[in-house]
């Protein structure tokens, strides 16, 4: 089997070799690159000047599994609020590192609000938005100087919609002199990549250590993102932050992000990801964290929470019982993980099957750690439960959902609780 798998190719390619950047807050260290697990991050959409509202959303994102949280620092009020946000998070026991997102006036804000500069664990700089003309190099240098002064890593994040116009003009002039000029699309790719790499090299010349730099080149098109990051990965060894700059709303945003990031990570490219979903009115910001985790977990790159396997339903399953149970179980497992991940190490490896009829129900349930095969339309009103491949009992009546949830909880307690100091893996 090993030879056969080797021959046909199974699993992602080896991760691209890169430097390792460390993002720190207190005793919490998040490693990006250098072979570390791919990091999931997110960004708040609150007014940063609203200390309590922003701290609450950061807490929600961190509890959902965001390992870094970025906040907008766009004016004096936001910069002044950052230390208070950090203090509020400390009171709530939330040690997630904060990333400051700067555009246009970052050099001024970091200089005028040193407590903000210290409270942040990382800075994000967009080379296209640090200044125009002669001011650009000076203001970029001022931000890098602050990063050096406070020993902070920096993400140099280039965006398709805010390219450095002087650099773009230079590359367009170079292209015009080519015997066979590149397409407009190719010129844009080259400008994105050149902006990121030249900015990183400039930061190193200014004294920022190479292991404190992370790069990104964000666009909104799937094929564009894949093409740009393949070339960027080939031309540098900095850790890479992946994500579409505007993925979109709902299923479109999820599908686009999954399509782009999965291709790149299958090729070993990418060290940290952010799923930039536009939330529906009143929607949960944490959805982007969950989607990021599920992309990594379904690809076999990381484990975050027990997986629920559920059939899609068909004419045999006209009852909605199994749909409701699958949803209840999945919500139950995810809601328990903030506690379980410390109390029951390894529980994230558990698989739970919730199946809707006799066709695939028993077989699929046997492959899971715990599985239940609910009766389909016209089948006997009984639900066999399988534990570690063997039928353990049969549930009947109106409390199947509650009883199955209790069985799952008992399985977690009996199989994943540390025994005499030994942690199960």
UniProtKB/TrEMBL annotation:
HAMAP family to which the protein is assigned, alphabetical: IspG (MF_00159)
UniProt-listed Enzyme Commission number(s): 1.17.7.3
The keyword Isomerase belongs to this UniProt entry's keyword annotation: no
Role this protein plays: Converts 2C-methyl-D-erythritol 2,4-cyclodiphosphate (ME-2,4cPP) into 1-hydroxy-2-methyl-2-(E)-butenyl 4-diphosphate.
Protein name as annotated: 4-hydroxy-3-methylbut-2-en-1-yl diphosphate synthase (flavodoxin)
Xref: Pfam families: GcpE (PF04551), GcpE_C (PF26540)
A molecular-function term among this protein's GO annotations: 4-hydroxy-3-methylbut-2-en-1-yl diphosphate synthase activity (ferredoxin)
InterPro entries: Dihydropteroate_synth-like_sf (IPR011005), IspG_bac (IPR016425), IspG_bac-typ (IPR004588), IspG_C (IPR058579), IspG_TIM (IPR058578), NO2/SO3_Rdtase_4Fe4S_sf (IPR045854)
Cofactor list: [4Fe-4S] cluster
Principal EC category: oxidoreductase
Family indicated by similarity: Belongs to the IspG family.
Chain residues that bind [4Fe-4S] cluster: 311, 314, 357, 364
UniProt KW keywords: 4Fe-4S, Iron, Iron-sulfur, Isoprene biosynthesis, Metal-binding, Oxidoreductase
Name of encoding gene: ispG
Domain IspG C-terminal: 308-408
Cofactor note: Binds 1 [4Fe-4S] cluster.
Catalysed reactions listed for this entry: (2E)-4-hydroxy-3-methylbut-2-enyl diphosphate + oxidized [flavodoxin] + H2O + 2 H(+) = 2-C-methyl-D-erythritol 2,4-cyclic diphosphate + reduced [flavodoxin]
Domain IspG TIM-barrel span(s) in chain numbering: 29-292
Pathway: Isoprenoid biosynthesis; isopentenyl diphosphate biosynthesis via DXP pathway; isopentenyl diphosphate from 1-deoxy-D-xylulose 5-phosphate: step 5/6
Transmembrane segments: none
Top-level taxonomy: Bacteria, Pseudomonadati, Pseudomonadota, Betaproteobacteria, Burkholderiales
